[in-house]
Predict the 3D structure of the following.
Amino acid sequence: MAGVPMPARDERAEKREAERKSLIDVMELATKYFEAALSHNIGARARGYLHERGVTAQSQAKFRIGFAPDSRNGLKEHLANNGVTAQEMLDTGLVAQRDDDPLTYDRFRNRVMFPITDLRGWVIAFGGRAMSPDVPAKYLNSPETELFHKRLTLYNGQMARDAAREGKPVIVVEGYLDVIAAVSAGFEGAVAPLGTALTEDHVNLLWRMNEMPVLCFDG
């Protein structure tokens, strides 16, 4: 409008937002890769595990659950074939490397994959449940990245916020499968912290969702 000064452009902020959106696109590619693997023959054992845990096909689709094949470079090659750079793979935490070896490898292998979204519904991280009993960590989360800060993120946060706006209670449970079971039972406001105890940041996030009481269940 005439006479109204326009705010100055913050080119650095615009660049950071563009880079962030690029990483979001990478995470979406990875999510679709894991979803496809779960539905393929290679994901049969993972589907069996989910069935045993009472996770229906509908819930698998709703939460976009996937499977990371037992491959050192499967996801890495898929991303590279889709134009993703080596740095972007590192920046999203989808690949890892050892201090004494410059070659990267898929961080998640032979794991049921639970996408973690932000409050806009964008996938920003993953949690992977090992299918093999002899690995050091049964559950493995994405590392801290530009997109993902676990102290500020709750699993199922977007759906819980929407449920809270409809007057439904927010319920804090222990893990991914607890959230899915609660939502399947009609408690759409179920959330879980990600590999950490409930922090003050989490509590502030919960109260910003809604002024309904927060019910906490352990296990």
